[in-house]
Q: What sequence folds into this?
């Protein structure tokens, strides 16, 4: 039987409101991801590797919104962070059993192999307490690799636009996927967004209007630009679909930033959780 | 099933699940329309006739062909087990959701004070390894709780799920009878209308439980009309050799990893571990070496549980060394749907 022993990097937190929603979303977006633990935040990170098709993700939650008790100790005082690699689905499954939990505790432990141990106290139907434990194997990422996992810089977008209802977008993109592997996403400062696919035989475009544009950060850039002019990026349709499939609930805020022919950046806010998803242009 | 022909002997036969299930599929419509259902055999035509006498004088007849079969006699005295637990299926069902479907086996660990259901996965090697899960259930959650000996048994998870699905339909509590690792365990459901006994193999306790935790699982479903018979000489002793029972020791550890399994033959279809002669060391308790899934190409492995192999400690090791394939029955119908694990193939 595995033997419980403390690790060099203690991290214990007690979730007071369990929202498996976040971990479910991450599980749909990335098979393996990095969990970064810092004194005030938790991040789920996917760095842009060839294996992901260059897609990257940065998801952030303020720990005080989720945990009633949060203790962590990083590698050192200057580097007070912990980076763990894990299989996203393992975490979401473990948290799923905690949906009606009386108490939930997540701890980093090391028994032969580093694990994120999720302890759940359930109240069964017969009013007796049941303790459930899940040991999720994790890999502690050494400090020298942390540079690859920094928060991505938000690019200066040519166009920023609010997204339409994601569910609608998803059902359209799902159908388009059957016709083509690539999709062009284009938008302008008049609140118009188009999803286009082009093949030898057919072109299909879906037009979204009156979406609205968020106020731009730099006044000059937006004034120079012709509001009707579209900024476009050609991307792999499956990456877009994977992103949309991860959004079960319509977010509080959803912005799409396009850098022409370079990258599309989705910036979402789901109540207390912010998600940034980057899909590069298909090269 | 009554044989209304002239012979008064019992008829042992088997029917395809794919033939029977569609007949009884729509319960609602059956309850609404069917006034009487007659089931009888026509052994001269090897058919079972299921006749629905419905409203408005409509009569619907289904003829299902059967095959004679000789079900294995299972010798297992569940009432002699030191440990007995009776639990509502719902409680077990709640525990089941903890484990991923990729888990092949689950371990039940009991002491007089607690019961723990846990995954019996290998030690993790990287982030893609399985999650280890455990759930403690207090004795007060059981309808009956009797632990005579502290024990930790490991058995097939998929079978447990199947049994639970069955028991949830009957709403009757499940009784779990077991002793020590290696000895079979029984899960039984005793309802007004039926009694079902599932005998499962458990992994033998090895000092070095390392690779390939494969186990043999089987579940013969036996109705009350066919009492468990035993050989007269063997009496009720599980560990003795009975000609109709296939006794095999299930060993999780591979003794001779370099040997490739050549005698896969008929057992491959069952997805069961292969029993090999252990050369040399006869004092080893675990004679059977178990293959890794990869070495048995195309083996459905633990997905098909129609094997009637029955793990138990055999006292007669010597005989097994000399005749390693004695008592191994061949799978008769490989094309049969074995996914429900509820039929013997012999």
A:
């Amino acid at each position: 039987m595995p033997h419980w022993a403390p690790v060099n990097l203690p991290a214990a937190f007690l979730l007071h409101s369990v929202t498996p929603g976040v971990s479910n979303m991450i599980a749909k977006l990335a098979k393996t991801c990095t969990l970064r633990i810092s004194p005030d935040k938790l991040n789920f990170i996917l760095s842009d590797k060839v294996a992901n098709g260059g897609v990257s993700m940065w998801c952030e939650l303020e720990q005080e919104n989720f945990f009633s008790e949060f203790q962590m100790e990083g590698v050192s005082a200057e580097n007070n962070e912990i980076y763990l690699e894990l299989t996203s689905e393992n975490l979401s499954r473990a948290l799923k059993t905690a949906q009606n939990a009386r108490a939930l505790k997540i701890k980093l432990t090391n028994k032969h192999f580093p694990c994120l141990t999720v302890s759940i106290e359930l109240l069964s139907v017969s009013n007796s307490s049941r303790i459930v434990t899940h040991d999720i194997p994790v890999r502690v990422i050494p400090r020298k690799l942390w540079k690859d996992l920094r928060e991505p810089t938000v690019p200066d977008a040519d166009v920023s636009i609010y997204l339409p209802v994601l569910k609608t977008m998803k059902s359209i993109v799902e159908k388009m996927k059957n016709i083509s592997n690539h999709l062009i996403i284009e938008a302008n400062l008049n609140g118009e967004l188009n999803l286009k696919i082009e093949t030898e035989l057919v072109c299909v475009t879906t037009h979204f209007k009156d979406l609205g544009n968020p106020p731009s950060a730099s006044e000059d850039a937006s004034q120079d630009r012709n509001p009707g002019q579209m900024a476009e990026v050609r991307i792999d349709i499956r990456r877009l679909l994977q992103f949309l499939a991860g959004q079960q609930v319509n977010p509080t805020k959803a912005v799409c930033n396009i850098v022409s022919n370079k990258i599309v950046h989705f910036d979402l806010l789901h109540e207390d959780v912010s998600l940034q998803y980057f899909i590069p242009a298909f090269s | 099933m009554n044989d209304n022909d002239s012979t008064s002997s019992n008829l042992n036969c088997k029917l395809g699940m794919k033939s029977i299930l569609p007949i009884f599929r729509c319960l609602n419509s059956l309850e609404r329309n069917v006034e009487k259902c007659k089931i009888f055999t026509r052994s001269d035509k090897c058919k079972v006739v299921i006749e629905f006498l419905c409203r408005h004088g409509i009569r619907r007849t289904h003829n299902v062909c059967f095959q004679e079969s000789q079900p294995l006699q299972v010798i297992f005295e569940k009432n002699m087990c030191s440990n007995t637990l009776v639990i509502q299926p719902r409680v077990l069902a709640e525990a089941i959701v903890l484990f991923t479907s990729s888990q092949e086996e689950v371990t039940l660990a009991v002491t007089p004070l607690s019961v723990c259901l846990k995954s019996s996965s290998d030690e993790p090697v990287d982030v893609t390894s399985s999650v280890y899960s455990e759930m403690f259930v207090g004795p007060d959650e059981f309808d009956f709780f009797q632990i005579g000996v502290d024990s930790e048994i490991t058995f097939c998870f998929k079978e447990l799920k199947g049994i639970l699905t069955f028991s949830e339909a009957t709403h009757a509590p499940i009784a779990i009878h077991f002793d020590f690792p290696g000895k079979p365990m029984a899960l039984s459901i005793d309802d007004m209308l039926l009694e079902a006994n599932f005998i499962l193999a458990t992994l033998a306790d090895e000092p070095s439980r390392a690779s390939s935790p494969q186990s043999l699982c089987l579940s013969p479903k036996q109705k009350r009309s066919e009492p468990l018979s035993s050989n007269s000489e063997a009496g009720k002793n599980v560990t003795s050799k009975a000609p109709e029972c296939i006794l095999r020791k299930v060993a999780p550890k591979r003794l001779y990893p370099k040997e490739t399994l050549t005698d896969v033959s008929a057992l491959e279809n069952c997805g069961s571990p292969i029993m090999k002669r252990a050369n040399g060391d006869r004092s080893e308790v675990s004679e059977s070496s178990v293959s890794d899934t990869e070495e048995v190409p195309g083996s459905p492995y633990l997905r098909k549980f129609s094997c009637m192999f029955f793990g138990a400690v055999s006292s007669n090791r010597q005989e097994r060394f000399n005749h390693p394939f004695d008592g191994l029955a061949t799978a008769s119908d490989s094309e049969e749907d074995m996914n429900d694990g509820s039929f013997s193939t012999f």
